[in-house]
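Ex. 9. Protein: Class I SAM-dependent methyltransferase.
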Amino acid sequence: MRRTYDDLVEEADTVSVDGWDFSWLEGRATEERPSWGYSRLLAGRMAAAEAALDVQTGGGEILAGLPELPPVTVATESWPPNLALAASRLRPRGARVVADDEEPRLPFRDGVFDLVVSRHPVVTWWDEIARVLRPGGTYFSQQVGPRSVFELTEFFMGPQDGSARDPRDAEAAARSAGLDVIDLRAERLRMEFRDIGAVIYFLRKVIWIVPGFSVRRYDDKLRELHGLIEAEGPFVAHSSRFLIEARRPPKPAA
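Predicted structure tokens for Class I SAM-dependent methyltransferase:
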């Protein structure tokens, strides 16, 4: 039996969107994954590290899924519901979770970590990353690139400037902070939304796609999109991702 618009909206507008787990969308939306395999690469780097920091950990899902964590592992997060989730997942693994707002300065001494990581940070504070890294230490991050899911953004909000988050800007900022960029890759990846409930859930969770989104505010556009999906099939968009790895230069030999 096909579910009505009102049924889909009521379900998607009330389900919890805490954390960074998208399993609720299984069977309702899909997204291609970057070819580099961030979690696999991260696992190897974590296994070799002595002291690691995960900036903006969300609900701690990525760290919690790794087979091995360094002897010293710290994660930061700003949103209280995510802090509680991250603590429940990471403290049993011996990791420390620190409440930190989304503005510098990072609450750590200079040169304390040999690895700093972040998956989809809102902002990267390059000077702070360089400060807390040990000489020879690395920053490893998968980030949201330019015009990510812009088909959805512009459906609801009209034409937008999509020039922000260019990986070349990230490379320049890393170098300006004194880091050597040793890897930089970018890809665009197909997404499909198969019902309006999936769209609502996604926009409630990924709040920067349509800032200020609510069902009430965008009811007319949601009804229009529901009709398009019913008539033409899944709504197709494209996410944008880039991988960047940067290293703090080692101290010169004496």
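Check your answer against this statement. The first strand starts at residue 29 and ends at 31.
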